[in-house]
Amino acid sequence: MKKKISVLAAVLLAKPAPDADMCEGLSVHYSGGSLLSDDIQKWLDVNGINE
What we know:
2 helices
């Protein structure tokens, strides 16, 4: 079940860096499989972090 960030939390996170972009956080549930690096790479690509 995904939890949505509260408005208050968003305001508190954005206050120190008002021009920062906020995106969905990376949620990792790792059980030793080989897909972790693929999941991280996909998240980086979706959020425009990787070049």
